[in-house]
Amino acid sequence: MNDETIKYLEETIDASSDLFLLQGDVLVQRANTTDLVGTTAVFDGPSGIYVYPDLMMRMRFRELATAHWFWRYASGADGRRYFMGIAAGSSGSMPKITGDNLRRMPLPVPPLAEQRAVAKALADVDALLAGLDGLLAKKRDLKQAAMQQLLTGQTRLPGFRRKWAVKTLEEIAECLDDLRVPLNEAQRSRMRGDYPYCGANGVLDYIDRYIIDDDIILMAEDGGYFDEYKTRPIAYRLKGKCWVNNHAHILKAKLGFDQVFVYYSLVHKNILPFLANGTRAKLNKSEMKKIEIETPGEESEQAAIANILSDMDAEIFALEARREKTRLLKQAMMQELLTGKTRLVPTGEPDA
C-alpha cells in the first residue's frame, strides 16, 4: 500500500461517548499484562451491553468492513507491535492504552472492496480452522471412548475369548531406573546434540550422547500431570536413542506383554492413590510396582488393541499437523494481505 492509504485510526471512527455496544463495534483491551493489552475483537451482539471504560475501549467504525479490517490488522504482527510498544512505555504497574495513543495508531486502509475481499479470504481460513478443531475434538472423544472400552475388556475384539486378569505393573514390566542419569543445565549446554534428553513430561533438551537405545515407556516420578490424568498424559513412549533424567521412571514390557498396550494402559491412568504425600506429589518406585492393569490373557489381543489405538493416534497427529499448517498459512496471509504486499483487488477499483 502506498502512503495515501495510511490514515490515523481517528479518521475512520465515529466520535461518540456512548458506552453501550452495538453489533459491529470493536473492543480493545486497554489495561492488562503487556502480552494481553490491545487484544481486539468485533462485537457480534446482543446490542445494548455496557462496556466498562477502565478495562475496554469501544470503537464504532463508519463501515463494518473497516471494523473487521482493523480487528485483523490489530491482531497481526504490526498491530501487536504497536500495542506492545505502548504497553512497554506506559507508566504504572499495569500497562495501559489511552484513547489518545489509540487514536494516533497509523492504520493502512485500502479501498472498501479490498477490505471486504481480505476479510472474506481470512474468514474462509478461519472456517477451515474451526472445521479442523471440530474434527479433532470428535476424533479425541472417539479415542477416549475406545480406550475406556478396549482397555477394560468391556468391548472385546472378534476372535478373542481368553479371560482377562488384573496384573500389577511389577508383573508385566521391568523397571530400568538404574539407567537414569540427571544432568543440570550447565552440563547440557556443553553437550548440545541430536539425542533427546527426557524428563517427567517429555523431551527437555537435545544432547550429543545417549544412555538408552530401546523402545521404552517413561512415567513421571514427580512433577507429572497426576491431577489432570484424564486430559494430560502421565506417561509417554520413546523409541531409539535417548538420555533420561531422574524425574521419570523407565519401563519395558516383559516377555508375553505388549509394550504399546502397556503404554496405553498407563498414559491416562488414575494413580493418585499411589502417590506419596508431601509438598510435591511423587510416585515412588515401590508404589509404582503396585499399580494394577487389566490385561488380556493373549499377547495377540493386547497387540490388536494397541494397533487400533495407535491408528487413532496417527489420525489425530495428521489432523494436528494439518491444522498447524493451516494456522501458519493464515499467519502468512495476514502478513501479506494486511500490509499490502499482496493485493486481492486491482488498484483503482471503485468501492462497491
Mind explaining what this structure looks like?
- This protein is of the alpha+beta class and 352 residues long.
- It folds into three domains: 3-109, Adenine-n6-DNA-methyltransferase TaqI, Chain A, domain 2 (Alpha-Beta Complex), CATH 3.90.220; 111-159 and 297-352, Bipartite methylase S protein (Helix Hairpins); 165-295, Adenine-n6-DNA-methyltransferase TaqI, Chain A, domain 2, CATH 3.90.220.20.
- It contains nine helices and 13 strands.
- The chain has helices at 64-75, 77-89, 99-103, 112-150, 169-172, 185-189, 259-267, 285-288, 299-337, and strands at residues 6-8, 26-29, 40-42, 56-59, 106-108, 165-168, 173-175, 192-198, 203-207, 212-220, 235-244, 248-253, 292-295.
- The strands form four sheets. The chain has a six-stranded mixed beta sheet. Strands 3-2-4 form a three-stranded antiparallel beta sheet, covered by helices on one side. Strands 1-5 form a two-stranded antiparallel sheet.
- β8 and β9 form a beta hairpin.
- α1 crosses α4 (112-150).
- The longest helix has 39 residues, at 112-150.
- The protein is elongated.
- The mean pLDDT is 87.
- Keywords: DNA-binding, Endonuclease, Hydrolase, Nuclease, Restriction system.
- InterPro entries: Restrct_endonuc_typeI_TRD, Restrct_endonuc_typeI_TRD_sf, Type-I_RS_S_subunit.
- GO terms for molecular function: DNA binding; endonuclease activity.
